[in-house]
Design goal:
Layout (H helix, E strand, L loop, with lengths): L1 H8 L3 E7 L8 E4 L5 E6 L7 E11 L16 H11 L4 E5 L10 H11 L2 H14 L11
Parallel strand pairs: 1-5
Antiparallel strand pairs: 1-4, 2-3, 2-4
């Protein structure tokens, strides 16, 4: 569905987004009624037809690499690529995902998610593998 949306819109980039409610701590991605991104990274009070947040998944055309900063080794794709393109009217869209989504954007959240959803034997194996891959990793008390 996401790829079909991306292709139909002839998007350069499609961000997978979910509806933003006031209780969620994420910055918003404002969409117009067609799904085109009209604002990124604003907090509170903005009026958009559809107010969402970015889930961390992108669909990109290979042309996007032309817009990456050439003289920098590191950059923020949102601030340094998407925002300037959005301001120029580039075809950046948000696909409104309505399924389940879990934030695993920190080590603590990532480990809590896996502990909750893996059977105990698989969790112990997963934890053992992490310790081998990342010696010295410290597990939060919530997932010991």
């Amino acid at each position: 569905k996401v790829l079909k949306f991306h292709e139909t819109k002839r998007a350069l980039v499609t961000l997978i987004v979910k509806r933003l409610t006031p209780s969620l701590p994420y910055e918003s991605v404002g969409l117009d009624s067609s799904g085109k991104i009209v604002a990124i990274g604003k907090k509170g009070g903005e009026k958009y037809p559809i107010k969402t947040f970015f889930t961390g998944f992108h669909v990109m055309e290979s042309d996007i690499f032309e817009y990456f900063p050439k003289k920098r080794k590191t950059f923020c794709i949102i601030n340094d690529v998407y925002l300037p393109l959005m301001k120029k009217g580039a075809p950046l869209f948000g696909y409104l995902y309505r399924g389940n989504w879990n934030d695993i954007g920190s080590l603590d959240l990532y480990l809590k998610y896996h502990k909750k959803h893996l059977p105990k034997k698989e969790w112990l194996y997963f934890k053992e593998r992490l310790l081998k891959l990342f010696p010295g990793i410290i597990f939060p008390r919530t997932v010991e």
